[in-house]
Amino acid sequence: MELGRTGPACAAAALLLLLLLAALGEAEFDPYRVLGVGRGSSQADIKKAYKRLAREWHPDKNKDPGAEDKFIQISKAYEILSNEEKRANFDRYGDAGESQGFSQHQHRQFHHFHEGFYFDESFFHFPFNSERRDTSDEKYLLHFSHYVNDIVPDSFKKPYLIKITSDWCFSCIHIEPVWKEVAQELEALGVGIGVVHAGYERRLAHHLGAHSTPSILGLMNGKITFFHNAVIRENLRQFVENLLPGNLVEKITDKNYIRFLSNWKKENKPHVLLFDHMPVVPLLYKLTAFAYRDYLSFGYVYVGLRGTEELSSQYNINVYTPTMMVFKEHIDKPVDVVQARDMKKQLIDDFLSQNKFLMAARLTNQRLFQELCPVKKSHRQRKHCVVLLTGEGDKFAETYEAFLTFAVANTKDVLRFAHIYNERQPEFADALLMDEEKYRGKSAVVILERRNNAGKIAYKTLEEAWQGSKEDNFILLDLLDQLRTDPGLLSSETVLADLHDELAPMFLIRWFYSTLDYVLDCWDSLFHSNWREMMPLLSLLFSALFILFGTVIVQAFSDSSDTRDSPPSEKEEATTKTEKNDTNFSKESNSRVPKKGFVEVTELTDINYNSNLVRLRPGHMNVVLILSNSTKTALLQKFALEVYTFTGSSSLHFSFLSLDKHREWLEYLLEFAQDAAPIPNQYDKHFLERDYTGYVLALNGHKKYFCLFKPHRSGDEGGTVGSCEDYDSPLHTEARGKSSCSPGSRSIKNKLHKLSFWMERLLEGSLQRFYIPSWPALD
């Protein structure tokens, strides 16, 4: 009974709280005030205000600290007011989102509360707007420019897990705890985390292919993969792991460790071994292998597996502590070791970054040369490279081993050692050795310093060929000691050409892997994409099948008609008759008024708008004449004469558009060609009097651009006919003895006087093109 008496009071208090929150939400955000328009404004006014404010406050153009927040408010306001249903809900309830559904939900909650003393407490956790949402996602928010310029290039070093969310999304709230936990865990392992708000970043959400919220996707090597399973921790971890290539880490045992470590010479990389008691390779190690795959090769030893005892014993491994070893030119002993019970990403990064190169790495490409021998930025950052120019084979093995021994004994932070094969990089060798006879067929040592990124270096070559003797070692060591105090010792200068990549795969191999990736993408899309994503692929498939079967059917009918009995003389007569008819047809086309049917011109209306423009086949264009009811007959006759000679092209279609019906559509298009036809503001009293009759637009529906023909003006080679005075110049008025603001039939036809020349330039592709984001609706 006590609960029953307190029920109405609690309901009233909750109702008062909701009304207060709604009032605060309305006071905080008013889309009309943000866009600066009235409640009775039309969609055209709202769109114009949005475009003006968006250009002014776009973060890429406006450097004001509050520009980004202002731009988000502008986008949110336009999203509400451009949708009639959301706008009506806002006007009715004062809410910026789906207020009607919210109000109904609110009514149902109170109804249940009153009848059964029940209230869904999850209601109080609903984010009424973005300001009240959990701020844990704010540091991960992505914008389009940030995604394109930073995230995509960085995805070649680490995978990204990206969540697409929005306001008023119950499912987004449901997965939030799992997402927060997994994001923190994976970020600590080296996975990039991103969040895209579909309401504020619609362009980025569309670019990613996310058509619903919440959506989760992975990004690696610039490739997007969608997550399709239940949002739980294990599935998300497995999803990230599946993004990584399967051959990053090799399983190592007693049988193959010698082969693995001996590949340093072939791959020109140090090799890393991780000893751990986990039966599967840890995700942290896979992510590390992906990040350093260009510098290091990775192997994993499961110390609990039978067949690894010899390996663990040889390198004295503690089976209870994870151990990481780096091997370079000598595989019997690691050059560096790290042990830790809890391997952290920072510890591994610090360890591997100091062991990215061999002791005397072979210069196989320009990137490696630039990293081993960086450009001098200051005297304190000066670094010198000692390069052995030698040949391949057993003949040069002894000199290389002597050089490697010297490099191991004298490597310092300011000194790097490398070698290069003369036969594989002949331009590099010729620039330093000057093709001198004393170095021919022998090895030589050069000390160099890169001066700039254009290839300029300062260097000094040892006077005699490198034999690896003790005397050569003393001479080289003495030069390096002098170089520490006298940088001017490098007296020679030259410019080196870029090294070509010796280890780059062959073209056929690259083509095979590209084709394989494309097939796998199509296979994944076939089984996991929604119908909206599948429509382009299905449309392409059915179009190809239709063309194939259509061609076969047409060919079958053509073959059957050709086999009919007909004497050869009749065929020749038919051919001659056709040529005569074509000649007569050509003569008739030279008349001022062509006969009906010479040029097929259809009116562009809302019924055929999609088929004649929006969905026009690639490579096809629709040439549209702008006319009014009063000029229709005269302009169509002149238009037919001017374009008749171009009707033989199957890629050209001809239409006309009524200016009286679709002036707003034309004005929108001409906004993208304002230098050709300036658009007056809405307060211009001559706005509705502007004459666009005689304009011709060549519209490419597939590539979303158009070319513009401006009507011919009397006494000028070309100009914009903007008023009645432009039709008749003073000379013409005096010659006719009268002045009339209404142009006659002849002056109307003169508007298209130069159209045939314009059509020739259109087919040549030399006309200026005006691109638009999308085709407007023809209402």
TrEMBL record:
Which Gene Ontology cellular-component terms appear in the entry? endoplasmic reticulum membrane
Tell me if Glycoprotein is a UniProt keyword of this record. Answer: yes
- Residue numbers spanned by region Disordered: 559-591
Annotated membrane topology: Single-pass type IV membrane protein
Q: Record's Gene3D superfamilies?
A: DnaJ domain, Glutaredoxin
Q: Name one GO biological process term.
A: autophagy
The signal peptide stretch is 1-27
Q: What CDD domains does its record include?
A: DnaJ, TRX_DnaJ
Name under which the protein is recorded: DnaJ homolog subfamily C member 16
Q: Which Pfam families match?
A: DnaJ (PF00226), Thioredoxin (PF00085)
Q: What ranges does the record list as Basic and acidic residues composition bias?
A: 561-582
Q: Which domain of life is it from?
A: Eukaryota
